[in-house]
Amino acid sequence: MLRTLGASRRVVFQGVAAEFTALGLLSACWRRRGRRWRDTSCAREVFNLEYSPDPWVWVIGIVGGALWWVSRACSRRARW
Length: 80
Fold this sequence. Notes:
2 helices, flat
């Protein structure tokens, strides 16, 4: 519809990219909630363990992902 109203291809692409990014983040959040519920119930009911997630997993995951993203961006700019 934006294209019909005179929007450029770039604007249409940015809108589609934003939409898919939002959908991806939403699905990732739901998947994470489902995994947490499954892991907690499995640990408590099947293995009779007290489940306590480690907060360092989040820190390491976010920092590791950011470092991977930066190294990927830098390797694209470097001409080997």
